[in-house]
C-alpha cells in the first residue's frame, strides 16, 4: 500500500463558508464576525472550544457540544445566545481579547456615529439580526439595529402577574365633553 492510498484521519480546518454555502445577509455577517475571533484564536478545534466552554465559571453554566461549535462556524445554526456568548468568550480568551472592549475604537471600520458597542454587544446585535432574518438595509451592508432597552420592568410577586398599576385620576376640566357636571357626573352633551 503506497502513501497515496492511505486514508489519514486528519481533521479539516474550519473555514468561512463560501458565498454558495452562505450567501450575503445577516447570517453571513454574524458568522463572519464569529470567524474574526476564531481566526484570532488560532483556529482551535471545535472539541477544544467545547472543552474550554465547559471550564467557564459563571452564574448560568452552559454546555456546548463540538458539533454545535462546528455548526455555528459553518453557518448551519444560530443556536441560542447563552451558547454563542460562551463560545465567543472562549475565543476571546484564546485570542487574548476582552469581550468588553469597544468593537470599533481602534479600527479603520470606526463608525462616524461613535459606535460604543463592545465586542460582545456587537456580536449579539448580529446574532439577533441573523435569528430574525434582518437584511442589511444600506449599500455598505450594515444592518439597521434597533436600540436595546436598558431598564427592565419591576419583578412581579410570585404566583401572579403582579399588582394592578396605580393610575392617577384624570385632570379636572372646566367644560366640554367628559367634564364633570354640577352633580359630579359626566355629560354626554357636546360643549356647543
Mean pLDDT: 76
Termini Cα gap: 105 Å
Total beta-strand segments: 0
Q: Structural class of the helix and strand makeup?
A: mainly alpha
What overall form do the CA principal axes indicate? Answer: globular
Low-confidence stretches: 138-143
Strand content: under 5%
Radius of gyration: 27 Å
Write the element-wise H/E pattern from the N-terminal end onward.
HHHHH
Helical content stands at: 25-40%
Summarize the main sheet.
none
Question: What is the count of DSSP helices, taking H or I runs of 4+ residues?
Answer: 5
Structure description:
- The protein is mostly helical and 192 residues long.
- Helices cover 32% and strands 0% of the residues.
- The protein contains five helices and no strands.
- The longest helix is centred in the first third of the chain and has 15 residues, at 26-40.
- It starts with 25 loop residues before the first helix and ends in a 60-residue tail after the last helix.
